[in-house]
Structures are given as C-alpha cells and as structure tokens.
Amino acid sequence: MAGRKQVMDMRSETGGVSQKESDEQQRNWTAQQWKKKAADSLANYDPTRAKLNFEVVRGGVVQPIDTSKSIAQKMAENLAARGIRDPNSNADGKRKYRTLAKFIFGGNRERMHELAFGTQKVDLTKGADNSGITRCQEIEDWARDVYNFMAKRYGEDNIISFYVHLDEKNPHIHCTMVPVDIARNRISWRTVFGSTIEAESANMTALHSELVEQVNKKWGLERGSNMEETKARHRSTEEYKRELVSEVCDLETTRQGLLRQIRRAEIKLKGISTMIANLRERKQAIQDEIDEIARQFGQDGCDHAALASRMAALRSELEDVKSKLSLRQQMLEDAERTILAARARLAALKQEHAEIREHLGTDFNYKTTELQKNLLATYNDMVASSWEPVRPTLSEHQQHLLDESGFTHLTDNAAGVINCALLLSLNCIREATAYAESNGGSTVNNAGWGRDKDEDDEQWWRRCIARSAAMMRPGGKKRQRGR
After folding, report:
1. Residue 162 counted as domain residue
2. 145-198, pLDDT tens digit by residue?
3. What does each C-alpha distance from 283 to 167, 292, 330 come to in angstroms?
4. In this entry, which stretches build a coiled coil (predicted)?
5. Is pLDDT above 90 for 473?
C-alpha cells in the first residue's frame, strides 16, 4: 500500500547516554514520575500500554525491559569486557569523539499499529485507558529482524541497547551502538560510518536501501525518500535537528504561556489581597461597632429598639463579610497554587530546554530558524498591539492613528523587517545595515547596538524589530501626521 514507508533516523553522540535519557528509554520511572509524564501536555506517553514495551538482547531474545543497569553502565561494562577504551573518559572531562550511534527505527503509524496491535483499536486520546490492548507477535518478529540486521551489519557485540516502545503514538525502536573498528579494537566513527560528510551520507543512503530490502519489504514497508532524491545534506540528521528545533520552539511557546499565566495570577493575587485587607478592615469596624452597642444596652436614656435594630443589621453584614472573606481566601490560595505550579513547570521546562539545545549544538542554520520563529511570534504580537487603539475608532483620523501606532510602518514590509531584525538579534550589525540599505532603507546609526545585560528575550526581540522597522523605512520617508 502506498505511503507505508520505513523510518530510520541516526544521530551521533559525544556525551554518552545521560541517566535521564536512559530512564526514558527503559521507562525506569516511579509511579509519581509516570503520573507527571502522562499529564505532560508536551508528551504522549500512555501508562496503560507501558507493559507492552520490550527489549531484544543477545541472540535475538525478546524479553521485558531490564532496568537493573543504565545504558551508560551497559556501555562501560561492554567496553571493559573487550578491552576497549572510551576516548571520552579523559580526566579533564572534555568530550570530543563521537562514540555512540543512536538509531530510531519505525514506519508509518498505520502499518506500525497493525504490526503491534493487529485489529485492536488503540485510543490515542490523552488519558485514555488502553489496558486491555495486547501485543502482537508480528511486532516482536519485526523487531527481531531489525536487531539481526544491525547485528550482521555492525556486529552484535557493538549493540548496547535495543528497546521497543509501544506506549507512544507510533511504535518504534531505540537502538544504541558503539562504532568499533574491529581490526584495531577501538572506537572509530570515521572507520565505521565514513571519514567525510559525503561518505557518511552515502553510507546512510545505502543503509536505508539495505534495511528495506533485507527487512522491511517483508513487513510491508517501503523505502522512504533518500538524501539524493531530496538533495538534503545528511537527511536523517537534518530531520532530527528540525524536529529538535520544533521542540525548542514549542517549549518556548509554552514558556511564554506560563509567564503570561504567572503575570495574570500575580495581578489577580494582588487584587484579591487588597480585597481581603479591605474586608478585614470592614470586619473589624463592624465588630467594634457591635461591641460599642453591646456596652450601651441597659444604659439609661438609650433607644434600645434602635440599638437592637442596628445590632441585627450589623450582625447580618458581619456574616456577609465573613462569607466574602472565606471566598476571597480560597481564591487567594488558588492563585498562589497556580503561581507555584507554573513556576515549577517553568523550572522543568528550563532543564528540558537545555537538554534539547545540547543536541542542537551551535549550528547557525538551526539557531537562526529558532530565532526567526520567535521573532515572528513577537512581531505578530506587536502588530496586534498596534491595531488595538485603531479598532474601536474607525473615524476620519483612522490613517493617522494607524501611522502613529506603528501599524502601517510595521506592515509595509513585514518580510524585510523580520529578516533585518533576525540579523540584528544575531549581532550581525554590518550585515543588517547592508541588508536594509540594499532594500532602500534609511541610514541608521547602529553604533553601540547590542543586548542590554538585564534585558529578557521579549524585550530584546521587540527592540530588534523596532530598530529593524526604522532601518527598513525608505530613506527620507517621514511619518505623516494628521491635520
């Protein structure tokens, strides 16, 4: 059937396998961690299908995932048993060599679900109960075939771990292996995968073809487009990095949402605190008046009927104030919990963000891709903000308001403004100036331009966009004013 394509992705690693990554692959999580993962809006783990996960070990044996040793421990024991030194285990801690190849194998979702679950219907809705789903023999046989393929291609001794996940949206394999030069009994990426980018690319192209011919054709999976067909450089790595960039941007979007949530909750908290202070003040004033009336009862010359009436009114108001205080106190606690939860999520995001960025490295293309997405999002917010004062008016001064708010200015050349702002945000001042001038922009003095020490991301992006808009304005063009 058309569209049933295999998936094979590979990336190199110089930093080994962290404990967190090992725990993720082995699903070595406590009940509390599982609960947190299942509730994470950015994840797609299904705890009710976790029991279906498995691993393939030496000899192609299928078994439940063994969590007694981390992947890093397995690698260390594997190398030690063969007398192979890890070149990244230097005392100074510097890691320079690619010592691990991390493969992901899979296929299109429809076919992988058929292999894993047969005709059973898996509910992919977050939080759904799939505890009744069972694992089919076909997925084990397919995984065993992939394992044997890798063992034959690279040597079974070099396979460190081989885990099959059926608890996510698309069943897949994680295979971690060390590239060992058999002749010299040492780790050598260049020997195994190629000494140049071109050689490595050619090896991956050949591996795609071999995988489909030797394994996946049997399982109804076709070969995906290769690097030559797409003209992409090192396609599997490129796809992987694009996915990571997307994850970084998604995390950034979530972070901005959490910051807005915190700001709203803090404003609400301040308002509720003020209301509580006023209610407490009113409660005390009522109580003082009640106490004064109580002292007046029984005294000569007092209108006891009037005092009793006033006392009843005060007690009724006091109960109302107490009820409002109780409600506001609950609102205060809810707001505080919201802030604490959002801040905890922000802290977790920061760690998640950092770990993903480690894999991205300093590749300029991906850095600019991420920046461009953030700049575009900020730009759209600025355009929306500029339009706000105009929307309710629609009077004879509309054009004047549009000009004054910056709406017209920002939308005259959106693509140019963004491109110039991108260069500014990367501190490519000369390039930004040249770009603006080559597009008919104004001459702007950018001496001393740069990010302020205490400036957050959004402030910095806004300044870049504002400066870019000024630079991209046609030379000599003045802002028109209403008469």
Report:
1. yes
2. 999 999 999 999 999 999 999 999 889 999 999 999 999 999 999 999 988 777
3. 56, 14, 18
4. 262-359
5. no
Instruction: State both tokens at 306.
Output: 């009037």
Structurally, the chain folds into a number of domains equal to 3
Instruction: Mark which of 331, 360, 389 sits at the end of a domain.
Output: 360
What number of other Cβ atoms are within 10 A of residue 87's Cβ?
15
Q: Are 61 and 162 contained in the same domain?
A: yes
CB 116 within 8 A of CB 35: no
Residue numbers of the domain that contains 351? 251-360
Share of the chain above pLDDT 70, in %: 76
Task: State the pTM of this model.
Answer: 0.51
Residue 239 lies in a domain: no
| Region 332-353 average pLDDT | 73
Instruction: Indicate whether 269 and 130 sit together in one domain.
Output: no
| Closest to 166 measured CA to CA, from 129, 136, 211 | 136
Beta bridge partners of residue 186, listed in sequence order: 181
Cβ contact 111:207 at 8 Å: no
Pairwise pLDDT comparison (371 vs 141), residue with the higher score = 141
59 and 95 together in one domain: yes
Residue 482 lies in a domain: no
Query: Does 28 reside within a domain?
Result: yes
CATH code for the domain of 316: 1.10.287
Residue among 74, 44, 73, 72 at smallest CA distance from 58:
74
Q: Note whether 331 and 276 are within 8 A (CB).
A: no
Nearest to 164 by CA among 68, 64, 72, 243: 64
pLDDT digits (tens, 9 = 90+) for 8-52: 888 888 878 889 899 999 999 999 888 888 777 656 789 999 999
SS (H, E, C) the chain: CCCCEEEEEEEEECCCCCHHHHHHHHCCCCHHHHHHHHHCCCCCCCHHHHHHCEEEEHHHEEECCCCCCCHHHHHHHHHHHHCCCCCCCCCCCCCCCCCEEEEEEEECHHHHHHHHHCCCCCCCCCCCCCCCCCCCHHHHHHHHHHHHHHHHHHCHHHEEEEEEECCCCCCEEEEEECCEECCCCEECHHHHHCCCHHHHHHHHHHHHHHHHHHHHCCCCCECCCCHHHHCCCCHHHHHHHHHHHHHHHHHHHHHHHHHHHHHHHHHHHHHHHHHHHHHHHHHHHHHHHHHHHHHHCCCCCCCHHHHHHHHHHHHHHHHHHHHHHHHHHHHHHHHHHHHHHHHHHHHHHHHHHHHHHHHHCCCHHHHHHHHHHHHHHHHHHHHHHHHCCCCCCCCCCHHHHHHHHCHHHHHCCHHHHHHHHHHHHCCCHHHHHHHHHHCCECCCCCCCCCCCCCCCHHHHHHHHHHHHHHHHCECCCCCCCCC
